[in-house]
Amino acid sequence: MTSLLTADAVARVRGLPGVDQVGLEQRAAGLATRSIKTTAKKWAIDTAIRMVDLTTLEGADTPGKVRSLCAKAMRPDPSDPSCPAVAAVCVYPSMVPVAAEAVAGSGVHVASVATAFPSGQAPMEVKIADTKAAVAAGAGEIDMVINRGAFLSGRLDEVYEEIVAVKEACGEAHLKVILETGELATYDNVRAASWLAMYAGGDFIKTSTGKVSPAATLPVTLLMLQAVRDFRDETGRQVGVKPAGGIRATKDAMRYLVTVNEVAGEDWLDPDWFRFGASSLLNDLLMQRQKLATGHYSGPDYVTVD
Fold first, then answer.
1. How many domains does one find in the chain?
2. Which H helix or E strand runs over 205?
3. Which of 8, 104, 149, 257 is surrounded by the most beta carbons within 10 Å?
């Protein structure tokens, strides 16, 4: 599906029904109590590892730190070759050449934030240049931020056209559209932003930059999973979901996997369609994986400190 005309997309988004807040939060709470059977837990942990976008987005990032992150992405547990690699490493555009060289031929993708991350407050020509530079340097995935000021001011046409333009600038790279749900304030806004991003051609919708609190939450992710499910029913095009920020424990990752399965379905239980934007989560997944294999927890030096 190509992007709709701006007026058509905005009209459809404005016509979306409101969200039942009580019902949404009750369902999320119910799903959070569900557990994964012990026999399936190793599969679930390995699936979650394969879904991680291992991320470093700090002003103090160095080439050495990024190379170390890439080594961990390719071999999360050097002592166990059966441990799968993560989906991608996510870095600032200036670090893309370093990451692309480090993971070349491994199957690990290189993702880069762009479009004046995390604020999104920059002229359009700067955002397009930012995107094109990251892709040219070797990024196969672009994580863009929407202009929340424009969205919250009701300028949906401006937000839509910006996503369309960035998607075009991506070329063959996949586009993840960061909604920054913590700043959108209402579930109605999250639903509207999700559909706007999908109509504009986004390949993924992502909760957060990780720089704003609250970041990913289970109710918001559930709502976004409903949106991608319904969008595929309407258009035939499948879009991924990426919760990011604040997901640190294996038990939380398991709750998200249960929610994916129950809300969107098995088709989304794949790194091509669901990702975790995380760094510390991987360490806990590795610790829990080792516990399943040996029956005991390793010492604190079992995993690297990011």
1. 1
2. strand 204-206
3. 257
